[in-house]
Amino acid sequence: MCLAALALLLGSETWPPAKTAAPLVGFSYSPTESLGANRVPTEDLAILLDATDPDLVRLPIYWESVEPTPNSLDFSSVDELLAVVEEHDQVTSRQTRVVLTIGARNFLYPELHEPAWAAPREQPHLNDVQSGAAYRAYIDASLLRYRSSPLVYAWQVENEPFDYVVNASTGADQITVEQLAWEISEVHQLDPGKTVLTTTFDGWNSTIDMLQLYAPPVLAALGAYPSGHPGETLAAGDALGLDLYIDAPSTPLRFTSPDLRSVWKQEALDFWAGQAKAQGKQLWLAEMQAQPWTAGSAFTPANLYASAADYRQEPLSVVLLWGVATWLRDPAWMAAGQHAMAILRS
User: Where in 10-96 does DSSP place strands (E)?
Assistant: First the structure.
């Protein structure tokens, strides 16, 4: 408690100069959010690109959208978004590239984006259908269609594949180690040379991360639940992507300030940067909170700036901000996102 109080007293708008090269900075965008708000996805993406001029945009290749039936493939939803990025690059000096996300698990609620024909939405059925010809056709066709595109910077395989995300529409939907390994091997085989990103949430802090990695029995004895699966996720791909939220309903120790929790997240990034470097891999901040989780949330633009300043000190290859749906509705948050991106690039 004394340490927490001291950290709160030390809050400041000044920070030491960064000691590492600036990461590539961008955001995640899902057309589902625009459609849910009765907006046009291509128009929204164009607005975001023009407003932020990002290095990278993470886009989903949703299984449910691309393979509406077991015998048909339709990539129009992805092609339309890539065309917007391509058009943007023709009129800007900073070229934007994309990270394409494939797999049954993909970003945005409800996490498992499985077509209706593949139900039920839980294991072990999920693993059975992922082992089938239709699912593998979706994976391979996605890779073959976009591997030659100069826009593609990297592939993300599944989203938080080892984490259990509780929601009303799916059961236990973690991806098996064997299935994830097959998908990553397909990327390496069909698009060699591209980085493969795998992601996990990181809910606590570096102390819990260290105990989880080096002393699981101690963590169990303390009664602390695991903080995602960073160790296993790092081992699986070429780059570890951490999803960090400092003010969400499930955030531990919410009696502390968001700024203090962003310092804890910075320490976690520092720890996993060392682990990634030891394995010759990259560390990405795959989801950096850049919006309030709910109305009345304690997360403010000032907290966004502070977390950007904290994270800028770490040797990150990529930072992708999360929250562009809020930016589209709120000019103040759009400005906040722009400022956070400038801090991360500084």
Answer: 24-28, 56-60
Number of domains in the chain: 2
Q: Are residues 202 and 338 in the same domain?
A: yes
pLDDT of residue 19: 74
Q: 238: how many CB neighbours lie within 10 A of its CB?
A: 21
Same domain, 82 and 155: yes
Token representation of residue 203: 């809910």
Side chain identity, residue 191: D
Helix orientation angle between 301-311 and 331-345, rounded to the nearest 10 degrees: 10
CATH label of the domain that carries residue 126: 3.20.20.80
pLDDT tens digit string along 280-331? 999 999 999 999 988 778 899 999 999 999 999 999 999 999 999 999 999 9
Closest listed residue to residue 157, CA positions, set 117, 203, 195, 115: 195
What are residue 155's phi and psi, to 5 degrees? -115, 135
Unique residue bearing structure tokens 């591997």 = 147
Interval 207-262: pLDDT, tens: 889 998 999 888 888 876 767 999 999 999 999 999 999 998 888 888 899 999 99
Shared domain for 337 and 257, answered yes or no, is yes
- What range defines the domain where residue 111 resides? 41-46+60-189
318 in Cβ contact with 284 (< 8 Å): yes
Task: Give dist(CA 264, CA 251) in Å, integer.
Answer: 12
Q: Name the pTM for this structure.
A: 0.93
**Looking at residue 17, what DSSP letter applies?**
P
- Give the C-alpha separation, 158 to 175, whole Å: 8
